[in-house]
């Protein structure tokens, strides 16, 4: 009898445990009905400006430099999965109404567009790519003399398709990811027809002198040749956060035997 009672208690415990696990799984499931209601173009109640367009499981913003983001709705929370995972508490949601709390705890009030031209407006504004700092390869050629020898130092600025995502916030406190394009710098030094050094320079080469968190959000904005001395040929790179004055300057020296050294500018 005791054995039966113990077995029954174990069985009830397993059932309760399984129910708990299922509840935990259900707790994390998406609200597909809420997701379906969110499909369409949403406008700010006060300004009537387009805030975003929802299509499938993706949010598209009206400005080309704003990256689209994946989203989910779980219970009463709106999640966006961009450069960072953001959570917004939903205040009200209906077929043509969506209110949620921003990161600054303001209530953002939106209504769904019923104007077909809004679709053309948002996609038309997204048709152009973000213009990088340099739109084409830029070449700089410097001729220098040192101890009776003539040298040529080159810088080639090459715009790339390497995307850098910078997170910013709207006045309402909503997270927006802005997309910029990094540059690849090619530097080379010649003595006559003999190449002393030639190599592509990317921002990742500065990981020993610039913190990873800064590099992640920065672009290699510029490269300049600053002359020659007994230590070699001196270049300086600008690694900066897009649309800000925050930057790091990095000194590069190419020695006469073709070796590169990198130090942060003091």
Q: What does this 3D model show about the protein?
A:
Residues 1-23 form the signal peptide. InterPro entries: DUF4738. This is DUF4738 domain-containing protein. Keywords: Signal. The chain has 266 residues and is an alpha+beta fold. It has two domains: 26-125, Lipocalin (Beta Barrel), CATH 2.40.128; 138-264, Lipocalin. It has four helices and 16 strands. The protein has an eight-stranded antiparallel barrel. Strand 7 and strand 8 (107-112) form a beta hairpin. Residues 1-27 and 124-132 have low confidence and may be disordered.
Q: Kindly state the mean pLDDT as a whole number?
A: 82
Oligomeric nature of the chains: single chain
What's the CATH C level of the largest domain?
Mainly Beta
User: What is the total domain count?
Assistant: 2
Measured by DSSP, the beta-strand proportion falls in over 45%
> If strands are numbered along the chain, what order do they take across the biggest sheet?
1-2-3-4-5-6-7-8
Rg value: 28 Å
Please outline the major beta sheet.
Answer: 8 strands, antiparallel, barrel
Q: Enter the CATH topology name of the largest domain.
A: Lipocalin
Q: CA-to-CA gap between the ends?
A: 82 Å
CATH homologous superfamily heading of the largest domain? Protein of unknown function DUF4738
The helix content is 10-25%
Low-confidence stretches: 1-27, 124-132
Return the CATH architecture of the largest domain: Beta Barrel
Tell me the number of helical segments per DSSP (H or I, 4 or more residues long): 4
**Topology, number of strands:** 16
Class from helix and strand fractions: alpha+beta
User: Could you say which overall geometry the principal axes of the C-alpha atoms support?
Assistant: elongated
State the order of secondary-structure elements, H for helix, E for strand. HHEEEEEEEEHEEEEHEEEE
